[in-house]
Amino acid sequence: MRHLGWRVAFPASLVVVLFAVAAAVSPVATAQTAEDEGRWAELAEIYFPDQTIVDRPDLLTMEAPYRAHDAAIVPIRVTATFPQSEELSVERLWLLVDDNPVPMVGKFEFGDDITAVDLTTRVRVNEYTYIHAVAELSDGSSIMTRSYVKAAGGCSAPAMKDPEVAASRLGSMRFNLPETIVAQTPVNAQLLISHPNNTGMQFDQISRNYVPPHYVRTVRVSYGGQRVLDIEADISMSEDPSFHFSFLPEGEGVIEVEVLDSEENIFSGSWTVKPAPAT
Amino acid sequence: MARRRHPSPIRIVAALCACLGLGTAKAQETAPAATPLPMDEIADGVFVHRGHDETPSRANAGDIADIGFIVGGEAVAVIDSGGSPAVGRRLRAAIRQRTDLPIRYLINTHVHFDHLFGNGAFVDDAPELVAHARLQGALMARADAYLASFKDTVGSEAASKVLMLPTDMPVSDRLEIDLGGRVLELTAHETAHTNNDLTVFDRRTATLFAGDLVSIDHIPILDGSVLGWLDVLDRLEEVPAERVVPGHGPVAGQWPEAMVAQRRYLEDLVTQIRTVQRARGTIQQAVEEVGRRHAERWVLFDEYHRRNVTAAFAELEWE
Questions:
Q1: Do the domain assignments include residue B146?
Q2: Does a cis peptide bond (omega within 30 degrees of 0) precede residue B256?
């Protein structure tokens, strides 16, 4: 029952997950334990029923800090080590922070044209925990990889540093590209969305009540009308969600982004990409 | 005191404690007489306890911040209560060694638990809790994480005694409080170290309690806005202080010279992170590359520098 504050304002559907997880929470773990295994077994049962997930760190790699530096902003990079092809590709990637009250960070679906899966995002980490990435492959199999992250020390908390600033630029976006882009060569781009991605824990002093959760639900990224990346996000994702991903610019085209949040706000942005001709 | 005016936060805190399996009993009821904290009288009627330059642990019981009190003609003001109920009790014992005047004000300089987890020790004195208007919201947003972290580092028994109190006198700009012929000037700042930093200036002795806006020897910790912090340092530089009590580190006599190292560190963070960002570098790269030349300058650099880079990076992305 340690997560009352988080739970107060949660949609009922999430509470089920929360209880299942809270039952297995341990305060400190420094190595993989039976508890960690039990918790992952429960999560797998909830999120991936009837699927066999094979641990394949050779096919799916994860970069995560050994210790969370800032509990609210923990960068996680997941890469598929095999080229994406018609024979074998990642159809869907899931990211979960096992011990968070709501473990889900998001579900990522990639477009048909991408040649490499290389995704970086930022998550909240409440306590010592495993982080799991699960990939559903085009051949119907599922693979996973994981990293252990120690909780941040001192007074670090997975809370917003400045809720007023976050509110004032709600829905603003940034799209960052390398200076040089060449047609037919994969590009690593960053999409930044300003959003409190509020966990529901914030206390409003005026209304003397908890602010309800307010978070990004879906993000759709397309290039030249073709899907690049679809994201179904959840609140284990950091505030001001950030995504580094790769896509393949064929020629000049427009990146379009549409974001839907839990209050039915829609934010959109578009950026013209002008790659240099392939040599 | 506060309870009649602000009923719901108390209920929330109580509910939180109950559901967390924490006792809500007053700290004093169960504790044996506390050993008074060692205090230095750094100016007439101004007492400071220097916390350990360490991360919180069982051994230091959360006694890691500089805390103190000021005695006026009629009343006492406590400025931060320390990082655990035990430290709060020991601070109270140190006050009672020196004066029987009522403890009328309990001032919290910001939300971090090493400065306010001792608040509960003063409940029976019924002081007015004075804090930045944004402190309470920030505390509620962090309560769960703080208690979990506190349990792991300082211990479950200490955690069971923690009381988080509602703010009675929220300060959103400036406020003067009178201890009887002794006026304290309180200033609420824009987002800097946190979004709820409050400084206290004792006019009589020109002593500034800067909270964690000023860190000396102990690495500054960013939990607000690095650009905002540099702005606030500009303002603090103008304060005609004869001595400054930092949130961490030794009391400084030379002002504003005492914060030069801190300013350089924060300025380097900004400059070097911007360079990484212009080259489309990531947080991970910045964490490895930025600010390394300051490593020898600060105590606890390895513990907090990467966090500072991470937080500053996320802020500067939106410039």
A1: yes
A2: yes
